[in-house]
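FORM 12-B: Structure-to-Sequence Request
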């Protein structure tokens, strides 16, 4: 199912699928934070950096709020490639420390949008721009989550995923579509996307600008104001009759404590699908006996400084 085969590996993929009953609902937690660098981004980074190496690049550049930078740095060093990572100043301290510890060079910018512009100045004929926000390698990488979840026992129901750049959401959407097209599943699951109240590009397109209080700055992984595949995400939601749910920092902190008590050591962005799950159960959109896939996207070990600061 993959367009290229990685020449080297850190052991990405094959993450556990843990089933828990939450208010009578069977929830399949896909533990993506147990990938080698602590997030699902390892799947796409493995493919992307393999491609860069096959094309002969010795330097890569990437803009990110954190997890992609860590993954790109680790896989670049695996292949002997120099990584330059552009990150917003407010990115979690732990993520910046890990990028540097892995051997990456960091350039900081005031905002995530500034990082996206700065990286274009750095990208040239001598550097490979990883561009995870629109790269097909990251969507294909995320599709393997759907394949694995199916092989591990999830065969339908509902899929809930956070939406930042949209790679994870689209990867899951196309991954389950592949399974339907191959006759392995009768129909695709119902899809729900989750955004933070601070940055709501997909919600805006579907429903108009929301009137909300609070902020969602803790969910740094979805602070992407202009996802390049917005049209594609919106089309996928409309075809699937899916929906978007918004969450704020207060909900994130409460959910983070819940997930810790369940034994899942995740970062704040990972709480988004769990929060949406509870809301959908409360609205009876999801009922007792239903099955729901919830990917837990990133490790909390990189963001404990954030948790300490807010509690």
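FORM 12-B RESPONSE
SEQUENCE OUT:
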């Amino acid at each position: 199912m993959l367009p290229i085969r990685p020449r080297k590996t850190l052991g990405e993929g094959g993450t556990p699928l843990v089933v828990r009953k939450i208010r009578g609902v069977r929830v399949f937690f896909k533990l993506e934070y147990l990938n080698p660098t602590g997030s699902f981004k390892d799947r796409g980074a493995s493919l992307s950096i393999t491609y860069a190496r096959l094309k002969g690049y010795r330097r890569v550049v990437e803009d990110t709020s954190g997890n992609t930078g860590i993954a790109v740095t680790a896989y670049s060093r695996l292949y002997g490639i120099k990584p330059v990572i552009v990150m917003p100043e407010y990115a979690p301290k732990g993520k910046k420390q890990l990028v540097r510890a892995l051997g990456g060079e960091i350039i900081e910018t005031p905002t995530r949008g500034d990082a996206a512009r700065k990286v274009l100045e750095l990208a040239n004929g001598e550097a490979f721009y990883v561009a995870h926000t629109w790269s097909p390698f990251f969507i294909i990488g995320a599709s393997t989550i759907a394949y694995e979840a199916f092989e591990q026992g999830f065969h339908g129901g509902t899929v809930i995923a956070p939406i930042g750049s949209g790679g994870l959401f689209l990867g899951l959407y196309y991954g389950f579509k592949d399974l339907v097209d191959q006759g392995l599943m009768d129909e695709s699951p119902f899809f729900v996307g989750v955004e933070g109240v601070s940055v709501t590009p997909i919600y805006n397109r579907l429903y108009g600008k929301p009137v909300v209080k609070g902020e969602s700055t803790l969910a740094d992984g979805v602070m992407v104001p202009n996802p390049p595949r917005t049209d594609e995400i919106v089309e996928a939601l409309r075809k699937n009759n899916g929906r978007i749910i918004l969450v704020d920092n207060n909900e994130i902190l409460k959910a983070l404590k819940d997930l810790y008590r369940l034994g899942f050591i995740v970062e704040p962005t990972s709480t988004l699908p769990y929060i949406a799950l509870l809301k959908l159960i409360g609205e009876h959109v999801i009922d007792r006996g239903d099955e729901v896939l919830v990917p837990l996207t990133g490790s909390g070990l990189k963001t404990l400084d954030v948790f300490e600061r807010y509690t």
